[in-house]
């Protein structure tokens, strides 16, 4: 079924009915009518290999999730003021994936809502407002979160940082100054956080919190140098601030080796916020917090969330965690991710435009540069590769401050055959773009 409306009709209606700042992927838009596993099917019946969307964590329309959702939706959906098994069952399962210090869960409806609730908790616990964020980060749609998102406020339409927002350098090892010794990268980048704390101290102020994605993804699939978060968390805590890990993109086992990306840095945050893959497409978010912070937040004001933690969402959340565990999807992500990364490195030997290959599990990036010495971003080439791949039926994205990083986050069920398919199309795309340059 191709749907009732042609692509041109939908574009026209979007223009007259919807916010003009809702963008559309690709110059020639795609209309999808069905999703199944790693595949998206367009209105002409063509199948595309989805290597981009990290929300459909277990693959599009995973039967276990659809079944859990439909069964619970047909039985009961209410709010958290009535007792139900699902919310406690889900809280037990979700917190069991986290370090033991993070034992209290709160359920919301999106990643933004999770970060927004984290800010309320931070304020209740510290009484402070000062924020330290990493450059080029993004944390959500609300005004208070746009204010914490250089990715938005530094760009067109943004108004720069507000007074309580302190931006530290992005710890991007690939673009570190050439004279920094490799073993000192963590310390050198962390010095930028110390500087922000000093700036506040000079005014008699202190940080309320530090928030960062544990692997900065919006900033271009950037892996922090080993020891960086440990160093930064120590500094922020010494100044009385809290540490919030935004795991909205990178969490739920995508990186393979661990459930949560902060674990790769050997730290335990005070609050971890999660979203996107949590419901395999069903709109959900959550946070997990230390008990003493939850207790500060319990200050007399009720917390009620109409939809958060409802029996249907919790049934979906349980099905997602069950499936990851039952089907060994973390192990799969680690294996297939390593295979893909090796394939990317092999391509890097043959295409000088590939400056850097980065990845952990099924969280992958390829940074393109005009020249490996100067590292001038090859933004147009990245876009061209994306378009060539789309023409060959493979979906990926571009990301980063210069939009020159090919971003791939395929679903956790990706197979070796899917990986070979992606590698073949990438090879053809690099070849096609090299021919036209
Ligand atoms: N944090 C990060 C790192 C994100 O990538 C996003 C969404 N792109 C959010 C928070 C906000 O999540 P949502 O769109 O579900 O509100």
Describe the structure.
Belongs to the class-III pyridoxal-phosphate-dependent aminotransferase family. This is Aminotransferase class III-fold pyridoxal phosphate-dependent enzyme. It comes from Nitratireductor rhodophyticola. The chain is α/β, with parallel strands linked by helices and 437 residues long. The chain has 2 domains: 7-58 and 328-436, Alpha-Beta Complex (Aspartate Aminotransferase, domain 1); 63-326, Aspartate Aminotransferase, domain 2 (3-Layer(aba) Sandwich). It contains 13 helices and 15 strands. The protein has helices spanning 7-17, 63-73, 85-96, 111-126, 143-146, 150-153, 185-202, 228-238, 291-297, 311-326, 329-350, 379-391, 416-436; strands at residues 32-36, 39-42, 47-50, 104-108, 131-134, 165-168, 209-213, 242-246, 271-274, 285-289, 354-360, 363-368, 394-395, 397-399, 405-408. It has a 7-stranded mixed beta sheet, sandwiched between helices. A 4-stranded mixed beta sheet has the order 1-2-3-13. Strands 11-12-15-14 form a 4-stranded antiparallel beta sheet, covered by helices on one side. Strand 7, helix 8 and strand 8 (242-246) form a beta-alpha-beta unit. Helix 3 packs parallel to helix 10 (311-326), helix 4 packs across helix 9 (291-297) and helix 12 packs across helix 13. It is globular and about 60 Å long. The two termini are 40 Å apart. The mean pLDDT is 97. 4'-deoxy-4'-aminopyridoxal-5'-phosphate (PMP) is lined by residues 110-112, 115, 138-141, 213, 218, 246, 248-249, 275-276. 4'-deoxy-4'-aminopyridoxal-5'-phosphate is lined by residues 110-112, 115, 138-141, 213, 218, 246, 248-249, 275-276.
């Amino acid at each position: 079924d191709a749907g009732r409306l042609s692509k041109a009709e939908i574009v026209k209606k979007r223009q007259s009915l919807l916010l003009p700042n809702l963008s559309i992927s690709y110059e020639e838009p795609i209309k999808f009518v069905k999703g199944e596993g790693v595949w998206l099917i367009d209105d002409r019946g063509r199948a595309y290999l989805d290597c981009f969307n990290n929300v459909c964590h277990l693959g599009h329309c995973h039967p276990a999730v659809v079944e859990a959702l439909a069964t619970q939706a047909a039985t009961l959906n209410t709010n958290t003021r009535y007792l139900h098994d699902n919310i406690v069952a889900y809280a037990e399962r979700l917190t069991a994936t986290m370090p033991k210090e993070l034992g209290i869960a709160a359920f919301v409806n999106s990643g933004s809502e999770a970060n927004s609730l984290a800010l309320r908790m931070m304020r209740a616990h510290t009484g402070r407002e000062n924020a330290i964020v990493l450059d080029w980060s993004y944390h959500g749609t609300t005004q208070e979160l746009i204010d914490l998102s250089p990715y938005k406020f530094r760009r067109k339409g943004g108004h720069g940082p507000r007074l309580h927002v302190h931006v530290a350098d992005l710890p991007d090892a690939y673009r570190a100054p050439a004279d920094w010794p490799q073993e000192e990268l963590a310390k050198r980048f962390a010095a930028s956080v110390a500087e922000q704390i000093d700036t506040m101290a000079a005014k008699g102020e202190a940080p309320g919190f530090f928030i960062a994605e544990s692997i900065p993804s919006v900033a271009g699939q950037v892996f922090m140098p080993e020891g960086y978060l440990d160093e930064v968390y120590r500094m922020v805590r010494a100044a009385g601030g809290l540490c919030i890990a935004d795991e909205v993109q990178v969490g739920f086992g995508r990186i393979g080796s661990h459930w949560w990306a902060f674990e790769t840095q050997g730290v335990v945050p005070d609050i971890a916020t999660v979203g996107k893959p949590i419901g395999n497409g069903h709109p959900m978010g959550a946070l997990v917090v230390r008990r003493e912070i939850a207790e500060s937040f319990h200050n007399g004001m009720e917390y009620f969330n109409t939809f958060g933690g409802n029996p249907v969402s919790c049934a979906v959340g349980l099905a997602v965690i069950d499936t990851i565990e039952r089907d060994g999807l973390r192990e799969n992500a680690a294996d297939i991710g390593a295979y893909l990364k090796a394939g990317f490195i092999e391509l890097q030997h043959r295409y000088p435009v590939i400056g850097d290959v980065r990845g952990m599990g099924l969280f992958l990036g390829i940074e393109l540069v005009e020249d490996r010495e100067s590292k001038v971003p090859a933004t147009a080439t990245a876009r061209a590769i994306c378009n060539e791949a789309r023409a060959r039926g493979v979906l990926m994205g571009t990301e980063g401050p210069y939009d020159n990083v090919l971003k791939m986050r395929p679903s956790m069920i990706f197979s070796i055959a899917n990986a070979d398919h992606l590698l073949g199309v990438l090879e053809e795309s690099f070849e096609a773009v090299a021919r036209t340059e």
